[in-house]
Amino acid sequence: MNAFDRALHSAVAASPQTLDDTQSSPDGRHLAIQRVGVKALRYPMRIAVSDGAEQGTVATFAMYVGLPEHVKGTHMSRFIQLLEEQETSISSVSFLHMEALMRERLEADTAYLEMAFPYFRRKAAPVSGAQSLIDCDVKFVAETNAAGTTKLTIEVVAPVTSLCPCSKKISDYGAHNQRSHITIRAEASPSLSIDALIDIAEREASSEVYGVLKRADEKFVTERAYDNPKFVEDLVRDIALACQRDANIGDFVVASENFESIHNHSAYAEIHGRGKLHP
What we know:
The protein has helices at residues 3-13, 77-84, 92-106, 165-170, 194-204, 215-226, 232-244; strands at 33-48, 54-67, 111-124, 131-144, 150-163, 177-188, 207-208, 249-259, 266-274. By secondary structure, it is of the alpha+beta class. It has one domain: Urate Oxidase, CATH 3.10.270. Strands 1, 2, 3, 4, 5, 6, 7, 8 and 9 form a 9-stranded antiparallel beta sheet that branches. The chain is elongated, with a radius of gyration of 24 Å. The protein starts with a helix and ends in a 5-residue tail after the last strand. The mean pLDDT is 91.
């Protein structure tokens, strides 16, 4: 029997009860760790969609728990097992359940669970009705602090069109416009959907963007933006006002990056506020 066969035979013969659980052994340095776990972990997932359907995606996870000062290490394999056992599509409710189950499995009081993924929406062009998919970047975060309070955060990055009011005012014809990325990061109730946040961003922009546009659609979108010019400051203020009125939103951050068409830089604005989730 060679060395490999001897090692394999030894591993098979050993029962789980005879193997040392090194992670659970005591640690004498008396230093608690606030976050320990796995990050940059990509996994296929199913996402619940507002209309009751679901879509497949590949998500990137960060999964951490707090480690008490007297414990040497955490059980890394349990994070992966949690994803393997996920049977339902991910919604705000099931994501919060996953975070609670993670704390239970890892025997932790505090935890941080993050899931980032591309999310696709099917859109109809405004005149022709031509169908196309538009992707947005989405992130779910569930975090439980030392006081035992769990907070859900939903972040979306939605592409829109913005048209410059100054350019429209000073030009004899035309006005420069550009694609903008609107980021809304909101403390959320479980009732807040991904689509609801994207809808806010699109509604308050100069115009929406589409994957497919026929000539009549292009005319409509161009004129829509021209009739609805907005500075980067206008974008974040109008979106913030919409978030302030939402009963499913708590603390929020709204940011807009405009990829300027006549400059070699982006214009950027960011605003913080609070919705009606908290009385």
